[in-house]
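Allow me, if you will, to draw on your knowledge of protein folds for a short while. I have a record of one protein: its chain in single-letter code and its fold written as discrete structure tokens. I should value your view on which stretches of the chain appear to form regular backbone elements. Thank you for your consideration; the sequence and its tokens are set out here:
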Amino acid sequence: MNSETRTVASPFAFDTLRELRTDGYNVLVDLTAVDYSLYGKCRGRMGWEGNFPANAPEPKPHRFEVVYRLACIDPATGLESLPRLTVRAPYDDGSVLLSVRSVWPNADWLEREVWDMFGIRFEDRPEIKRLLLYEEFVGHPLRKDYPVKKRQPLIGPKSGELPDSPSFNAVRQEIPFE
């Protein structure tokens, strides 16, 4: 399958993505992020600089990229009628990035995951909630500056009740040991 990649400044990402939706890209396949804070910056610290080729990557001027993967699927045939498209939006803390959940409703959960794992805020979603981690979790574990050995307390519901609560992180013994 052919694919194409475009890079769009984050303030213009929403308008570009909305135009792509009207141009036929009717499926948001994925929305994720990449933290480039250490990209191309580890040469002198690792002790194996000779292993880097001359064309090794240079550091990126921005910390993150929010990546949107789009597909154009014909509803009648179920086949893709245009090459897949990847749209990259460079992002730094303080950049403006708007939510695309009004364009593709499945973006709701994907944006929550990006917020949860990377701490990337969508300007028009100030009350965004975590998707994979519990609300009391401190930090965003897929950021490169998240401490590898950081321990978070395991918690249960605020009420203190734990049986049958799917949010409680506990291993229950269903079958007693003999």
